[in-house]
Design goal:
There is one protein chain. The protein has six helices and no strands. The protein is mainly α.
């Protein structure tokens, strides 16, 4: 299973190509649950959690380093999805990048250093965001 979400228009394009070559046409668009999985960049979140743990467990835990790590990984997420995972739908790339930011917010990350941050906000935001984005079907 690739990372790119398969839409109705993708299925029609594949069926049209396969009709010309007499190949099988059993491609289906991704359902809600599959889109949810593809919208969460789990490998990116894992890298962040690993680096965040190293920083927080060091004797000189630096808030600037926490923000820098978040910013670098956030900036690299769309590039990773596009170049490595071959995701071509910009809607999906944007949602995945926002998903990473929401995950970091829910984990605390550098946001926990802000005076207004409460863990409750992340605990509420994560399931609501995840529930809502699965509804979105990306376009080209």
């Amino acid at each position: 299973m690739g990372r790119s979400i398969v839409t109705d228009s993708d299925v029609k394009a594949v069926q049209a190509r396969r009709a010309l070559t007499a190949g099988p046409t059993d491609v289906k668009p991704d359902e809600y649950s599959t889109r949810l999985i593809k919208y969460i960049p789990a490998e990116v979140v894992t890298i962040y959690v690993f680096v965040d743990g190293i920083i927080k467990n060091s004797s000189s835990s630096d808030s600037l380093l926490l923000w820098l790590t978040f910013g670098i990984i956030l900036a690299l997420t769309p590039l990773y999805l596009w170049r490595v995972q071959k995701v071509k739908k910009w809607t999906q790339i944007v949602i995945c990048t926002l998903s990473f930011a929401v995950w970091v917010f829910s984990l605390g990350g550098p946001f926990a250093l802000l005076g207004w941050y409460e863990a409750l906000y992340g605990a509420v935001l994560l399931p609501l965001f995840t529930f809502a984005v699965g509804i979105v079907e990306p376009t080209k």
